[in-house]
Structures are given as C-alpha cells and as structure tokens.
Hints:
The chain has helices at 17-20, 25-62, 66-72, 75-86, 103-115, 128-135; strands spanning 164-168, 172-178, 184-191, 197-203. By secondary structure, the protein is an alpha+beta fold. The protein has a domain at 23-90 and 121-203. A 4-stranded antiparallel sheet has the order 1-2-3-4. Strand 3 and strand 4 (197-203) form a beta hairpin. The longest helix is centred in the N-terminal third of the chain and has 38 residues, at 25-62.
Amino acid sequence: MNAPTEEHHQPVWARSPKRSRGGGGGGGSLFGKLILFALVMAVFFFFVAPAVAFFGIRSAAETSDAAGLARLIDYPAVRQSLRPQLDGNPAASAPAPTFMEDPIGAVRRQFEQATAASAPDVDAYLTPAALAALTRGEGRYASQRVEGGLPSPDNTNTGGPLPRPVYWSVNRARMSVADEGGSETIFTFERKGAFQWQLVHIGLPDGAAPAGAPVVGQSGRKAG
C-alpha cells in the first residue's frame, strides 16, 4: 500500500492544480457553448430585424397603432421619397442648384413653382389603412384606402403576402411585396441602432392610380 503523501494533509486550495482540475472541464465547455449560442442568436436577430420591422408596420397599421408606426417609420424621409414618384419628376429629390450656380434655372424654377399645380398628397399613402395596403402589395391603389375601410383587427389577414428580400447590408435593407400582376412595392429600411430599423423609403410601382380608382381588395384584386 502506498504511503500517504504530504499533499493529502494540505488544504484543498494548496493541492496540485492537476488534481483540482480533474473533473471540472465540463463546466467550462458548457459556458463556452452558451457564449457561442448567444453570439449566433445575436447575429441572427441582427439580420432578421428589418423583416421584424416590416411585419411590425403591417400589424401596427392594421390595428391603427399610431405610436407603433411612429417608432417604425421615419415619416419625413418617407414623404420625401414619395413626392418625386407622385409628381412624375424624379429630379425633385435632388438638391436644386443655387442662384449663383444657375441663375437662369433658379428663376425658371421659381416661375414653375408659382404656376405649378398643387403638390401631390403624399399623406394619402401614410394613413394606417394605406400603409397596411402597401404592405400587402396594393401599390399605388393603396392611397384609395380610407380609414374604416379595413376589417376590424380581429378579422385582418395579418399574414398577407410575404416580403421578398432584394437587398441586405449592415445598415440598409430592402424588401419587395408584389401584387398578383407582379408589380412590386419596395420598402427600404435603415438601421438606427443595434437591432432597431426604420422605414425610410417606399418605392411605388411604375404608373399611377387613376383618380377615383376602385379600392383594391384584400387579395390584391381591384374591388368592383
């Protein structure tokens, strides 16, 4: 029988490190796996956050949650994105030259602004009913939606058509929703925080909704 060594008479904290580590490897391995899992989940939620924001807008619009929409939409940026699409002048979104850079053009712009027709009503696309219609792919006909024209929140088809990602980067993402004819409405989101994204641009399909156009139904078909 082996004689007891001096180590057996020492306190636990003073014994050989090899003995004290004999059965403790599992805890460190589990902790490492938890850290790796947390990192994977953080990356996952980072990239799906724009899609979460899209569905958040659809849900908030269908329930007329104005506070929820205000958190998810940068209204001034979206209004600026819609104006040139509605008045048929894409150059309107670009900053105009100063009087010193283009004096003739500056005078002409002032004359055009004085004689131009009234500016398009971009807010017609930013009501909860219109936003809900946009997320379902109703495009330019979404402006025909009026408050009270949607079903009650208990009967809304919150699922709707699924958005299709068309662009994804660290700070900007775009998703598309198409109607039954294939016309796409593009939603551009911009990252405002680690997991916070806001809608900053709505790209409407080409063309224009005629005045007094029939309201598009829930399925994307024109009603009536």
